[in-house]
Amino acid sequence: MQTAPIPIEQLAAEVYDSAPPPVQDRMVSLLVGKIYESAPVAERSNLVTSLMKPLGVLSLVAVANGIFANIRFRNDWPDVQVRPDDVQNIRAQDVVDLANYAQQVSTQVLDGLARIVTGSPVLATSAAAALLIHMLVQRQQTRRST
Fold this sequence. Notes:
Layout: H1 8-18, H2 21-38, H3 41-52, H4 57-62, H5 67-74, H6 84-87, H7 92-105, H8 108-119, H9 121-124, H10 127-145
């Protein structure tokens, strides 16, 4: 008798739940990159804007060869607006790197990502988004219990 295969999302959630915090951070960043990769341009702009907000100029210079610093310098401080034409030059790996930095600076940045993902009908229906939301809820529960 064969058993039904376990859905990959469930396996990933179980791995996340049992992983040490640095691995969890990396998993979240990779999922953010995956979501960015499949997102429409407007949502890409929102994701990048949300990730950039907590970071200072030096952090932005250090990430992805300064691509985010260039966007930052074009805007007035502290208002960051990532335009649709900006995201044409931003790769998913750049967003993964940005998410890594943003998580180190602010746990609230992840709450903003959850709002963007759940607020977008296009993003909210993807398996990667569902998994990201699971991870962010787990992280929030862990923060509250410590």
